Predict the structure.
Amino acid sequence: MTKFAVSASILGLAGMAILAGPAAADPPADARPLSQIAQALEKVPGYLFLQELKWDENAGAWTAIYRTVNGMDKHILVHAQTGAISEPAPSGAGEDPKPNGLE
C-alpha cells in the first residue's frame, strides 16, 4: 500500500509539471540583484509599498506595480542592468481603453 501511495504522488507531481507548462524566461545574467531593484523603487516619489514584481521578457525589464501614498496603483518598468525606471509603453493606439467596450 505504501508503494501505491508513493507512485500516485509521483504521478501527481508529474502531472502538475506538465500542466504548469514551460518556465518563464529569466532576467539576463548581468541583471542587478532584486535587492537593488527594490531600493530603487523605494526612492520613487510617492512610493508606499510594492505589490508585484515580475520579469517581462517582451519588455526586457522588470514590471512593477506599487501603491502610492494617495492610494493609487502605479505600473512601471525597471531596466534589469541599470535599474532605470520608466513608464510602460502605452497600449496599442486606437484601442478602446475600457474592457470589452464597457463603461
